[in-house]
Design goal:
The chain contains 15 helices and 4 strands. By secondary structure, the protein is mainly α. Keywords: ATP-binding, Nucleotide-binding.
């Protein structure tokens, strides 16, 4: 450890962690080459939306990917004003990733100012009071006193600047230590995830387009459990293991043969059902019933979402994604795909 580093976060690098680092590094190399294709711009945008939706959903934001897309397109969305503000702030923050350096405190504070603008009075400033991390009515973690935050963050950022650990390890360690310190009055979770993305994207720009946050949201309880176990053990190896597994799985979903989602069996089925309907389309309930699917989440993730993302179906009321009158219908692209037998 270089002599100028005052703090060295405790963790153990196991063979299993090293294997995951190797697997992820190899997959990133393959994706980086393929991601240079301009034809994937639409997929990149969809992944950025998934990233923002996942990170905010962990904090209780209820907006769907469709609603976030509508906000990005400048359309009116019927939702709580605070949640819309959270989305706009997150979009702005992720758009600034290329401008920040992960170990610079001034950039960290600027990022928090953007992320929490109009949401809290202390945006862009460390908290001035005590704070505890709650799980329902139970206190999971009492963060360090406010007066210690400047020094703790200085030590952590200095470690990040000088560490020789692989960015995959360093990003996970920083994420955990940041969550432990809890330096801000609010927005610590979304900032920790944003800053890990920044650390990884400085290693490889492909990480600005990999929706790791979306997977973390799907495994939210495991995320909090990994933080809690690491805290109880006094070292963050369990959290490193969890985050690397999320990164590995998110990359694996992208590192598949490029068979476009619109030709998956699920999307083929939804196209076939809609091809038999009238031009007015079908509601979500009607579609799910016609496909004989009982689980709403599986239907949305496996059928509805990919079909919408790849433009083979469209909403009848795109500015009101959650309207009870919402229907789905084939686009001209979807009709062509269905008629071609894809």
């Amino acid at each position: 450890m270089p002599a100028n580093i005052a703090y060295d976060p405790p963790f153990t690098i196991t063979p299993a962690l090293l294997r995951m680092v190797g697997e992820i590094s190899e997959a990133v190399g393959r994706i980086s080459v393929r991601e240079e294709s301009a034809t994937l711009l639409r997929l990149r945008r969809a992944n950025r939306i998934r990233t923002i939706q996942g990170s905010l959903a962990i904090e209780g934001n209820s907006l769907s990917e469709e609603q976030i897309t509508a906000i990005l397109d400048g359309k009116r969305v019927l939702a709580p004003s605070r949640e819309i503000q959270e989305v706009r702030n997150a979009v702005t923050a992720y758009d600034h990733l290329d401008l920040w350096v992960a170990y610079k405190e001034i950039d960290l504070l600027a990022a928090h100012s953007l992320m929490m603008s109009g949401l809290i009075d202390e945006s862009g400033r460390y908290r001035s009071g005590g704070v505890g991390v709650m799980a329902g009515d139970r206190v999971m973690h009492m963060a360090p006193p406010a007066k210690r935050i400047p020094l703790l963050m200085q030590d952590l950022l200095l470690w990040l600047e000088n560490t020789e650990q692989h960015p995959l390890i360093a990003g996970s360690v920083f994420h955990y230590e940041f969550a432990f310190i809890h330096p801000f009055a609010d927005g610590n979770g979304r900032m920790g995830r944003l800053w890990q993305t920044l650390i990884l994207s400085a290693w490889n720009q492909v990480f600005t387009r990999i929706p790791v946050e979306s997977l973390v949201y799907e495994h939210q309880q495991e995320y909090y459990q990994a933080i809690q176990v690491s805290t109880s053990q006094g070292q963050c190896s369990p959290f490193i293991d969890f985050m690397l597994s999320m990164i590995r799985d998110a990359i694996a979903a992208m590192d598949t043969p490029q068979v476009t989602p619109q030709v998956t069996p699920q999307v083929e089925r939804i196209l076939a059902v809609l091809a038999k309907s009238t031009n007015t389309g079908m509601t979500r309930e009607e579609l799910q019933g016609a496909l004989n699917l009982k689980d709403r989440k599986s239907f949305r993730q496996g059928y509805l979402r990919p079909a919408l993302q790849w433009g083979v179906i469209e909403m009848s009321l795109p500015d009101k994604p959650n309207s009870r009158l919402q229907k789905y219908r084939l686009t001209s692209k979807g009709s062509a795909k269905h008629n071609a037998g894809e």
